[in-house]
Design brief:
This protein has a domain at 80-160: T-fold. The protein has 10 helices and 15 strands. The chain has helices spanning 3-19, 47-68, 76-83, 93-108, 118-121, 134-140, 173-187, 278-291, 293-302, 321-338, and strands spanning 25-33, 36-44, 89-90, 149-152, 157-160, 193-197, 200-204, 212-217, 225-231, 235-240, 245-248, 251-254, 268-275, 307-312, 317-319. The strands form 4 sheets. The protein has an 8-stranded antiparallel beta sheet with strand order 1-2-6-7-10-13-14-15. It is globular. Bound molecules: adenosine-5'-diphosphate (ADP) and magnesium ion. The site of adenosine-5'-diphosphate has 22 residues, from helix 8.
Length: 339
C-alpha cells in the first residue's frame, strides 16, 4: 500500500473510532437451550444494557422451549400430541401461526417438510441408538401426512384426523426463536448482532464495517470448513446428517426423516440455506435435505429470496444460481486487480 493510501486508511480508522462511543465493545454469551448451544453476540456501548439485551434473548429461547419442546410434558406441543386425536384442542395464537406456517412449507416443498414426521420420528432415540423396526415403520408410514392435521381457525384449535399422529416443530422452531431474538435486539436499538442456535443463525447488520464470516462445516471432518460465507443482515441455516445420528450395519440413522419412506433422507450430507430470516432458512434447509440435490436446487432457484450450498453424499459441493453469479463476479474482480 502506498503512503497516501496508508494515511487515508488510518484516518478512516480514526474517524470510525470517533463515531463509536468509547466503551462500545462486543459482548458474547453462550447458553445451552433447546438441546443446542445458543450463542448471542452484540455490539453495545453499555455493558450492563448489553448483557440485559442478551438475557432477554435467552429468556425468549427458554419461553419457546417451554411451549414447543416435545421433551417437556407440559409444553403446548406435548399436550396437543396427547389430546388432539381425541378432540379439537385450542392453542395459543403463536403456536397456531407456527402450525399454519409449517403447513405452508409442506405445500411449498411438495410434502418434504412435514411436522407429522414425528409419528415415526419420535420412535427414534439417536443418543441411545434406538430405532423402530422396519415393520413398525411400514405400519406407521401412513400417519406421516400433514393433511391429517385439521386447523380450525374460528377456535384456533387443532384436531388430528388419525389416532397415532404426532407433530414436532424441530425443523422450524430454532429458526423462529432466532428471529424472535433478533426482533428483541432491534427493539433495544442494537445494530450489530449475531444469534446462532446450533445450525440456525441470523446476522443483524455487519461485523462493524466488515461482513460476518459464517463457516459451513465439512460434513465428514469436524475440524474443517467446506466453505466460508461473508454475510451481513441475513439468516443462514445448515441441516446435516452428522449432528444427531448413529450407525448400525453400515447405515447412518439421523434425524432428518423423509415423509415418503419414514427413514433418514440419504442422498446428501448437508444443505445450507441463506435467506432473509431464520424461520425460512431453517424450514428450507430441512426440506431441501429431504428433496435432494436436483429437486432441492430447482426449488431454491425458483424462489428469489434464498440461496443454497448443497454437499452431496460424495462430498461434491453445488451452489444455487445466485451464489454462482456472486462467485463469478468476485473471481473477475480479483482478475482485474491482478492486471
Ligand atoms: P437441527 O435441528 O440440527 O438444526 P434441522 O434444521 O435440519 O436440524 O432440522 C432437523 C429437525 O427437523 C429434526 O431434528 C426434526 O425435529 C425435524 N424434522 C425431521 N424430519 C422432518 C421433516 N420431514 N419435516 C419437518 N421437520 C422434520
Ligand atoms: Mg432446518
Amino acid at each position: 500500500m502506498c503512503p497516501e493510501r496508508i494515511g487515508f486508511f488510518l484516518l478512516l480508522l480514526l474517524v470510525g473510532n470517533l463515531l463509536h462511543p468509547v466503551n462500545a465493545a462486543w459482548i458474547s454469551i453462550d447458553e445451552a437451550i433447546m438441546g443446542t448451544k445458543i450463542n448471542v453476540q452484540i455490539w453495545h456501548s453499555d455493558d450492563t444494557q448489553g448483557q440485559a439485551a442478551i438475557n432477554a434473548v435467552m429468556e425468549e429461547f427458554h419461553r419457546l422451549d417451554r411451549k414447543l419442546s416435545p421433551y417437556i410434558e407440559s409444553s403446548e406441543l406435548s399436550l396437543l400430541n396427547r389430546m388432539a386425536a381425541n378432540k379439537p384442542v385450542s392453542i395459543s395464537d403463536e403456536f397456531y401461526q407456527l402450525l399454519e406456517l409449517s403447513m405452508d412449507y409442506s405445500e411449498l416443498t411438495n410434502g418434504a417438510f412435514d411436522i407429522t414426521f414425528a409419528s415415526i420420528g419420535h420412535q427414534y432415540d439417536y443418543r441411545k441408538g434406538i430405532k423402530p423396526s422396519n415393520k413398525r415403520i411400514d405400519q406407521s408410514l401412513s400417519l406421516i401426512q400433514y393433511k391429517h392435521i385439521q386447523l380450525i381457525p374460528e377456535k384456533h384449535a387443532v384436531f388430528f384426523k388419525r389416532p397415532g399422529v404426532k407433530i414436532d416443530l424441530g425443523g422450524i422452531a430454532k429458526g423462529y426463536a432466532v428471529d424472535r431474538g433478533i426482533k428483541l435486539l432491534q427493539q433495544r436499538d442494537v445494530k450489530h448482532a449475531l444469534i446462532s442456535a446450533g445450525g440456525d443463525s441470523r446476522l443483524l447488520g455487519d461485523h462493524m464495517g466488515r461482513p460476518w464470516h459464517i463457516g459451513i462445516q465439512a460434513p465428514r471432518d469436524r475440524k474443517s470448513m467446506a466453505a466460508v460465507l461473508p454475510l451481513a443482515d441475513s439468516a443462514v441455516s445448515t441441516s446435516g446428517d452428522y449432528e444427531r445420528y448413529f450407525e448400525r450395519d453400515g447405515v447412518r440413522y439421523h434425524h432428518i426423516i423423509s415423509p415418503k419412506t419414514g427413514r433418514s433422507a440419504d442422498t446428501l450430507q448437508s444443505v445450507t440455506i441463506i435467506g432473509p430470516n431464520a424461520t425460512r432458512t431453517d424450514a428450507l434447509s430441512t426440506s431441501i435435505f429431504i428433496l435432494g440435490a436436483s429437486a432441492g436446487m430447482a426449488l431454491i432457484n425458483r424462489l428469489n429470496d434464498v440461496e443454497a450450498v448443497i454437499i452431496d453424499n460424495q462430498g461434491n459441493i453445488s451452489t444455487s444460481d445466485g451464489l454462482a453469479d456472486l462467485a463469478n463476479q468476485q473471481t473477475s474482480e480479483a482478475a482485474i486487480e491482478h492486471e
